[in-house]
Amino acid sequence: MRVFVLRLRWQYILLVLILAFFAALPQVREPLVTAVTSRGRLIPIYRVDTPDKVVAISFDATWGTDLTDEILAILKQNGIRTTFFLAGYWIDKHPDYVVKIAAHGHEIGNHSYSHPHMNSLTAEGVIQELERNAEMIRDLVGEQPLIFRPPFGEYNNTVIQAASSIGYKTIQWSVDSLDWKNSTSDQIYARVMSQIKPGDIVLFHNAAPGTPGAIRRIIPDLLSQGYRIVPVSEIILDGDYYIDHDGTQKRKPGGN
After folding, report:
1. CB of 220 within 8 A of CB of 78?
2. What is the CB neighbour count within 10 angstroms for residue 68?
3. What is the pLDDT of residue 148?
4. 215 with 185: CB under 8 angstroms?
5. By the 8 A CB rule, do 100 and 72 touch?
6. Which residues are identified as catalytic?
C-alpha cells in the first residue's frame, strides 16, 4: 500500500513538473502578414473578408503612359482614389507621371524596380529590388510605399518573408480584368462586373487599350450599386488577422 501511495505521489510531482515546463515556454504569435498552408507555403493577400460593400481598384504600370491621363480624369470625375503599383524602370522613364498620380491623391505601391521573376531571387535580391524602387518613389513624392505587388503575380516564401522584413504587405488580386490581353472594353466590363463582390481587389493596367472605356462604365455602376471604391491600403486589415488558404484576409476572433 505504501509503495502504491509513493508511486502516485511521484506521478503527481512529474505531472506538475511537465505542466510547469510547458507554461514557461515563450508564447509565439502567429505572423500577421502571412499565413502558412498545411504544406508550409506563405500566402499574400488576394482579397479581404468584409461585410461592407467595398472594393479596391488597382493599376499596374510597367509600360507606356498614353492612357494614363484619361484614366486619371475618369477617376477624378467619379471622386475615386485608387492604387497604382509602379515598376522602377517605368518611374525612370516617367517621373512626371509619378508626381501626377500622387497629386491626384492616389496611393503608390511598389512593383519592384526591374519587374523580374522574383522567385529566382535571394532574399537580399528581393530587398534590393524593393528598396531601390522605394527610394525613387520617396525622392519624387515623399511617400514610403507600404504595399508590394510581385511582378507576374509570382511569389514564394522567400519573396513574402523578405518583403515583410522591410515592412511590406504582399498584395495580389482576386479579380483579374485581363485587360493585359488587349481585351475590349466590353469584355473587361463583363468580366469584372460578373465576378466582383465585397472585399475584392481588382487588377487593371494603366496602358491597356480597353481599360479607360471599361472603367468609365464599371465605376459608376459599382457606385450605383452601393459600393465604395478605395485604395488597397484602405481595404486591407491591420491588427490581428490571418490569411486563409485561398488568400482571403480575415480578422482573428476577438482581434482588433
Report:
1. yes
2. 19
3. 98
4. no
5. yes
6. 60, 205
CATH superfamily of 35-251: Glycoside hydrolase/deacetylase (3.20.20.370)
The burial class, CB within 10 Å (0-12 / 13-18 / 19+), for 141 is: middle
CB 44 within 8 A of CB 171: yes
Q: 64: alpha, beta or left, given left = phi > 0 and alpha = psi -120 to 50?
A: left
Of 203, 205, 200, nearest to 235 (Cα)?
200
Positive or negative CA dihedral for 153, 170, 184, 200? positive
- Shortest CA distance to 248 belongs to which of 204, 197, 205? 197
* Average of per-residue pLDDT across 164-175: 98
Which grid cell is 209? Answer: 487599350
Strand ranges, E, within the chain: 35-36, 42-43, 47-48, 54-61, 83-86, 107-110, 147-148, 169-170, 175-176, 201-205, 228-230, 241-243, 248-251
Q: Is 21 helix (H, G, I), strand (E, B) or coil?
A: helix
Answer whether 230's CB lies under 8 Å from 58's CB. Answer: no
C-alpha cell belonging to residue 16: 506538475
**Chain centroid, CA 140 distance in Å:** 23
Q: Using one digit for the tens of pLDDT, what is the confidence trace for 49-75?
A: 999 999 999 999 999 999 999 999 999
197 falls in which pLDDT band (50, 70, 90)?
Answer: very high
